[in-house]
Prior knowledge:
The protein is an alpha/beta fold. The protein is built from 12 helices and 21 strands. It is 31% helix and 22% strand. It comes from Candidatus Gallitreponema excrementavium.
Amino acid sequence: MKYFIDMHGCAKNQVDAEILQGILSGMGMEKDDSPDPSPDLIIINTCSFIESAKAESISSVIAARRDHPSARIIVTGCLSQRYGKLLVSMLPEADGYFGNGDLSLFSSFVKELLDRPAGKEPLVLIPGDRGVSCGERPFLEGFPGSAFLKVTEGCDNCCSFCAIPLIRGHLRSRKISEIISEAKSLISRGVFEINLIGQDLASFGIDLDSTGEGYLSGGETPEDVVPRGKPMVHKGKTLLPKLLEAFSGLDLQFRLRLLYIHPDNFPLEILPIIKKDKRILPYFDLPFQHGSDRILKLMNRKGSLEKYCSLIGSIRKELPEAVFRTTFMTGFPGEKKADFLKTRELQEKILPLWSGTFEYSLEDDTPAEKFPGRVFKFTASKRRKILEENQEKITAELLKSFIGTVQEFFAEEIIPEENLALGRCWFQAPEVDGVVVLSFEETDSLEPGKIYKVRLVGVSGIDLKAVLVR
């Protein structure tokens, strides 16, 4: 039996999809890299973070049924976890709906679905939140040599606009030894770049004891199903510094990037560790979201424009070479022009190398859903475009400082007919930042997933141009 998986959403969803593929392969199924010709089983791993992501996921389900009338279709991921029971009547195109709370139940779910006659009412399983789903990942869906490594699941920050706690549940951390073991396994498979991911890496380990190997008394264990409701009360402190020290203890070649650290929880203790070990990149993904103190308070955040600028200053003082990625939101309920101008002020003060800008999306059952002062979509869109245009100028100017430098180029894609290679340097995260376009000679032999010495020679928009160092 052949299966095809259609992936949507973030890096965390990608890791889940890779785990699901490992489960299907363990069941003796064969992966199909294309939905044509029609596979026996189609998995649509959905996203439900914002309205546009929901719409894209639903459209994919409808298109899959239209194009593959005889295939069995299972909808997995965030959309199923949050709306699975509702979708049975609203989206009957699928044969089954499986959530993401506990991926270990997927094998039995698939077996039950395949044993049922076609045409029956969809099978639905919305698992409780149990630990951090992990497992064999025989197929890594990113570029060769790079992989995401999930260290936490869920979130207890509970920003008023965010549905993540409703979708992914409360914070759960993996034991440090499990994380290091998976990292070593990835490196042995040829992975050079490891990108640590979680809803908030700064909260890693607050549910663990000081060793990072046991759960706090009264806290959840990997065997417990964590109930939904109010945020868990954790007594521990972040173990992100301890985790980075464990990586530093590895006598292996790799580079490590930290993706998504909530700025309100940022542990300054990680800075000397990063400074000492050049394998841990001084790349900081800090989603500030807004520059207005008033709006930040409404967002249930503890930060302020002054605090966020101070944090950036502290990091740059310790690590002058540090680069920053952030996200900004426009159109949050009650946002006035003066509030928006504070966000632009923050952007211009901290000068991030990269940023993503999003318009507020009203999400069911979040506190902000009931907030007054809805902002017109036109206004939110206009403000988003202003920030994006401003960021393009900031990025282009900052990239000029790299011209003339020699860097390690991580090749992702080779275009031999044009003598070009696309890839990244250390200050570019996969999929979300700009790329480096490398020109080479016909006699050069380049491979995806390999590292090459290059000289950066120019800027093109948000991308860089490079030539090989010979």
